[in-house]
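Q: What changes when flavin-adenine dinucleotide is included in the input?
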Amino acid sequence: MIESLARLNQRPYHRRKLVLIISAMRHYAAALRAAGYDVDYRVAPDFLTGLREHVATFGTRHLICMAAAEYATRQFQQRLADEPGIAITILPNTLFLVERYPPNRPPALMEPFYRAMRRHTGLLIEPDGNPTGGIWNFDHENRRRYDGRPVPPPLRFAPDEITRQVIADLAVACPRAIGSADDFDLPVTREQALQALADFIARRLPDFGPFEDAMSSEHDLLFHSQLSPLLNIGLLDPLETAQAAVDAYRHGHAPLASVEGFVRQIIGWREYIYYRYWELMPDLLQANAWRAERPLPDWFWTGRTRMRCLSKVISRVLDSGYCHHIERLMVLCNFAVLAGIRPQAVNDWFLECYIDAYEWVVTPNVIGMGLNADGGRTATKPYIASAAYIDKMSDYCKGCVYDRKARVGSQACPFNTLYWHFLITHEERLRANPRLGPAVLGLRRLSTDERRAIVAQANEILGRIEEL
Ligand SMILES: Cc1cc2nc3c(=O)[nH]c(=O)nc-3n(C[C@H](O)[C@H](O)[C@H](O)COP(=O)(O)OP(=O)(O)OC[C@H]3O[C@@H](n4cnc5c(N)ncnc54)[C@H](O)[C@@H]3O)c2cc1C
Ligand code: SF4
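A: The predicted holo structure follows.
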């Protein structure tokens, strides 16, 4: 096992993420040694140097490794075949079910992909082959606003000696890392990951479905699982995670709508995103279908904006490395699309700031789903909305200096002005999209003067975006 200093410093990553990965690695090495395996564990300037040192010490002739999840690392693995005297065998990546059940033909949409995955795994499938409950999708039941009910907090794991050492080591090794590891409390062993999974299933899964899309200024997690960092480094297996939710349903501990919603995220969205990544790379990295060129505002690095939703969500991310899906999609990416921020700048920000961020999952979610910059190949429509949506699903607008109802005027919410400006600017193209046609129809109610006022105000606020 190699701790590559070059990889740890490839970007200024969130410190909590770096501690999670390195602590999990060191705990894993210790567990393997305790189980009787020989482990060669190295800290090296980069992977290749570490590997060459290992080969020189042990005379290794044959390397067996799991295919990396990310494009550049997989290319690196393939290049290892050029190393003199070493044979390399690359095995499928076991962190994804789609490597076990590849689709027969490329699915264009998530829904058929997900249904095929349900059939492959047998999750929520009845003996007659039909979906449990008679339907595949309970999304219509899963759109409630948070109603103030108690939210069970996630389990916290106090750092042990290994983790404390990692925090100290990385303080020196990664001076550019962002955020703080002072309150580090994430699971770093398989046992702790299983405890975190069991805790989610018992205490938050029952309310997961109805409040899946809800946002709250008070609760960052609400009823979400925060299991993505653990799934993405292999402390949890996707099938066991989804199976645990299905077991809770079978034992009457969680309603079907919540369980199906969760299973859909794990064996549907997560797998589809990974599949899409490999379909669309490497072009995906440079995609910019809406020709958005504005730089990312500086306040993405401080949270200092008067827009309360963005300020709260960004501060939360900089602090903990986490916010849930709808805030990533409908607050952060929504603003970035409407304001015409360059997709690659947004992608970089997501890669650096989150504890669960890896290129295979960030790039299709940000450039594909969130910004629709891949020309609709990941999601069929841009996820754009005005303040009406944010107000419906959250308490952010209450207490915001901006007026959530106005689209022009000095107090108008920038989401409103920019939403209508986006529709006006891209009217023709949006009209051709059957999923967005109805939104564009709203433009018919705008007079020429109203359109002019919106465009003028949008240009004005985009000109002083740093001050919003
Ligand atoms: C713009 C944007 C950026 C994102 N960046 C990341 C990222 O860096 N890392 C990451 O793991 N996920 C990312 N996602 C997907 C999703 O937002 C997170 O997986 C989720 O918020 C993690 O929190 P959770 O574990 O509490 O999720 P839950 O709401 O509890 O969902 C359960 C699990 O489903 C999986 N999942 C759900 N949706 C997706 C999805 N679209 N893509 C992949 N997995 C999904 C995750 O493994 C997650 O743990 C991103 C989504 C968007 C829209
Ligand atoms: S009014 Fe606008 S800027 Fe303020 S919280 Fe609501 S959506 Fe965000």
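Observations recorded in class: Residues 224-228, 231-232, 265-266, 269-270, 273, 324-325, 328-329, 333, 350, 354, 356-357, 361-362, 365-366, 369-370 surround flavin-adenine dinucleotide (ligand 1) (CB under 6 Å).
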